Amino acid sequence: MVKSCCTVCLCLVLLHIFLCFVSTQSAPEGAIVTQVPGFSGTLPSKHYAGYVTVDESHGKNLFYYFVESEGKPSEDPVVLWLNGGPGCSSFDGFVYEHGPFNFEAAKTKGDLPTLHLNPYSWSKVSNIIYLDSPAGVGLSYSKNETDYKTGDLKTASDSHAFLLKWFQLYPEFLSNPFFISGESYAGVYVPTLASEVVKGIDAGVQPKLNFKGYMVGNGVTDEEIDGNALVPFVHGMGLISDDLFEEVKSECNGSFYIPTSESCAIKLAKVDELVDGINVYNILEPCYHGTEAVKITESYIRLPSSFRKLGETDKPFPVRKRMFGRAWPLRAPVRDGIVPTWPQLMNLQSAPPCTDDEVANAWLNNEAVRTAIHAAKKSVVSSWELCTNRLRFYHDAGSMIKYHKNLTSKGYRALIFSGDHDMCVPFTGSQAWTSSIGYKIVDEWRPWSSNGQVAGYTQGYDKNLTFLTIKGSGHTVPEYKPREALDFYKRFLAGLPI
């Protein structure tokens, strides 16, 4: 009898172990990334990559790269990351911003970059999904090319479909807190997708996502507010004179993005002329102009160290000399209708201004890399591009302010952060629209710190809405200020004061 009971107990213990193993190891085996070309060490956490089909009839497949947390993957938040464009790959964030690796350019052209572990990777404190969206971007594709004509609302719907299927593939992460994050044109992607997720939760759609909140960095939001943000920004940064600023205010009656008269247009043209040649994505950084960049960099190095440190980062390798970010010209805010991509604007004749993406291109177009990360064959997705001209993309969701109001009023946490030296989507716009919502200020404007230094300023509002600046950073905050970015990121995810 005792022996029989022991046998039963042993069986129950083994069954429990088996069930625990199944529940925590149910990620698809075919998606695991066993080795990363260019990296010779041991991965600090598990990596997965592959496709999720969001429309079987069209063969619409969205590519993702998933990095498990280096902390406690079974408990740490799951965060979806989206780059903007529209039409730009989220490998932008993976390669250049907060991915698990720092990429060191190869010394010989054609060779693979060398990968080193990134001490400020966001996977230190979270599980993170990098998603190429919509189809046609990065390594995502559709067998029906009519899908490349799309817009805000369809992109949000497809990304929601992706999330539902992804969590079915990785059910062990369903109970983890879930956040959506992104930058630049993802100022549209993030709130529209968050809205779809919340609608699904309210409607009882399964699986039920444990959605907690979202983050937007230097994100486009509202045509009028974004459009009026540039002139106060360039004046405050000392890029135009007091006299010109007063003249523009007088001639344009406070409306800087649509000239109200010929004299207003002339004054605005003068503003554009004065800031021409400045790196729109970080006014502290030199602008890449092919071989001329070397001369610019050399003169930059000869500056006194106190000046040079203004734009320095903690990264061991140089910040790239490019930032696509927002794919339209300076002082042209998002309006209803088609949003041209940079390749379309440039007629494919040259790269966008201040651009150099050799490292990402060298790595993601390498055959061994594509095989390792389970990307489609080149006959399906011929080459990876940071930003594609394949899309015909329409802005059809209007101002994002109504989305932010709705989401925060339901109790979802929102962090709106801005690199304060970005001229592309200036912090003056983000500061203005967060204030315009009209919520009560519960944490008055104050500095926040990282590594014992003032890292920027923040203001907290009712309904868990927070506005944050990052001092000395450009458009892609984790690229320029990786330590500071990881600090505010982990505090926000944990629900701690920043």
What percent strand? Answer: 15-25%
CA-to-CA gap between the ends?
61 Å
Compute the gyration radius: what is it?
23 Å
Taking pLDDT < 50 over at least 5 consecutive residues as the criterion, the unreliable ranges are 15-24, 290-308, 322-330, 348-352
What's the architecture, going by CATH? 3-Layer(aba) Sandwich
- What would the average pLDDT be, to the nearest integer? 86
Q: Care to count the β-strands?
A: 16
Q: How is the quaternary structure best described?
A: single chain
For the record, the CATH class is Alpha Beta
CATH superfamily: Alpha/Beta hydrolase fold, catalytic domain
In terms of structural class, how would the helical and strand content be classed? alpha/beta
- Relative helix content: 25-40%
Structure annotation, total helices = 17
Largest sheet composition: 11 strands, mixed
Shape: globular
Question: Number of folding domains?
Answer: 1
- CATH domain fold name: Rossmann fold
How would you portray this structure in words?
The protein is an alpha/beta fold and 498 residues long. The chain contains 17 helices and 16 strands. Strand 14 (441-450) and strand 15 (453-461) form a beta hairpin. Helix 3 packs across helix 4 and helix 4 packs parallel to helix 14. The N and C termini lie far apart (61 Å). Probable carboxypeptidase. It is found in: Secreted. Residues 1-26 form the signal peptide. Belongs to the peptidase S10 family.
List keywords for this structure.
16 strands; single chain; alpha/beta; 11-stranded mixed sheet; 498 residues; 17 helices
